[in-house]
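Practice problem: predict the structure.
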Amino acid sequence: MRMTTGEKLFQIFLIIIMLALIVSFLYPFIFMISMSFSTAAEANRAGAHIWPGQVTLTAYKMVFSNPDLLIGYLNTIFRTVVGTVLTLLVTCLCAYPLSRKDLPHRSLMTFLVFFTMLFSGGIIPTYLVIRNLGLVNNVWVYILPQLTNAFNVIIIKNYFESIPQSLAESASIDGANDFHILFKIYIPLSGPVLATVALMTAISHWNMWFDAMIYINDDTKQVLMTFLRRIVIDRNQDLMSGASEAQVSQFTPETIKAATIIVTILPILVLYPFLQKYFVKGIMLGGVKE
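Answer:
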């Protein structure tokens, strides 16, 4: 079917808009990469930064020489890996009974889960609960309060409901209990939605810094994003401390900030393409109930 002139013009307009959006999304990232490899003179140059005129790794050397970076990486990897695994486990254990139509008071329990999406206790009551649980200045404060949330429970619950009940009934007749049904049938058949929840949870854990700022006082327990915040906001005058005169001439606080940002977001950028194909499928299948 041939398009009319108006439809062709509309298509061209959409292409222009999309190209403009792509450029606006990509340029800040390209700017940070270029800045992180730039010398001090290049970083102070006015205008757009697409590619550094003279490439230097001094900023990255200074970033990796900071011991706080390794501490932040280890703590962030711990909270991301352990937190994601435990979140998937707890969320599946919560979503499975809610997906079973024979659960007593199922509608009421589902409503109570959904209700937590609308209201929260606030920062001060939450802090008091965390303190009374003994989680202040404890690395488990990164994981236990974030074990699950209502949105993930509802997504996985709806996906479980799309699995034929006859599979569970057949397994039950053969003597399988609910744990066998969950771990042997439901979870193996729920790869897309579990990958989606895992990706969202991992990104959330990797990017979180506010809980570390509130609950953690020990620098050895701080996460990577807290370190990044200090570099970008709090320590503008301390970035060059300990550097030689030759090194100072090769970088500026802006290049250090850019290099730190690239180092902190690189793992997620590497992970995302492998799970992105499950993202849309998992959201659609888990968010729409048949």
